[in-house]
Design a protein that fits this description.
With 155 residues, this protein is mainly alpha-helical. The protein is 62% helix and 0% strand. It has one domain.
């Protein structure tokens, strides 16, 4: 359990673990198709973050990376198959992070925010886009900067 989540309700804590999976689904599925490269990129990112992350982030990414592909598939099944409906629901859900960030340690919130932004970029680049590897397709570009989530850093 991530100690920084102690002030959150059990449902809010669960959502903090779920949000990176939602980011992976949103970006990977933005074009209507989630391919294995995108899933594996999300998983690899979670595993790498687990190794280099600060205290608290290590526990978070250890939990997220465990059975990541299975978690992604289970979460994905609870959303509509139609991409615009699914994306709208995920965008709405991810915006809940804006109310949770003020409830947790500010430094941890900033790290968490940066980690999901990094995850979004890694997943977007993994599918190749229009110009080949490391380019971002137009569908992913709409969401890759996670406009629905506000940076918790001081303004």
């Amino acid at each position: 359990m991530v100690p920084q989540f102690d002030k959150l309700s059990p449902g809010e804590q669960e959502f903090m673990y779920k949000a990176p999976v939602l980011v992976a689904i949103l970006i990977a599925g933005a074009d209507g198709e989630i391919d294995r490269n995108e899933i594996h990129e999300g998983l690899n990112h979670a595993r790498k973050k687990q190794k280099v992350a600060s205290l608290g982030m290590i526990e978070l990414y250890r939990e997220i990376s465990e059975d990541f592909e299975d978690k992604l598939k289970i979460v994905l099944q609870s959303y509509p198959v139609e991409v615009t409906q699914r994306n709208a629901l995920i965008v709405e859900e991810l915006s809940q992070l804006n109310t949770l960030f003020p409830k947790i340690d500010r430094d941890f919130a900033k790290l968490y925010y940066q980690s999901i932004c990094d995850l979004a970029m890694k997943v977007a680049k993994s599918s190749g886009g229009l110009l080949g590897m490391n380019s971002i397709g137009s569908a992913e570009a709409r969401f890759v900067k996670l406009p629905m989530v506000q940076d918790p850093s001081p303004v």
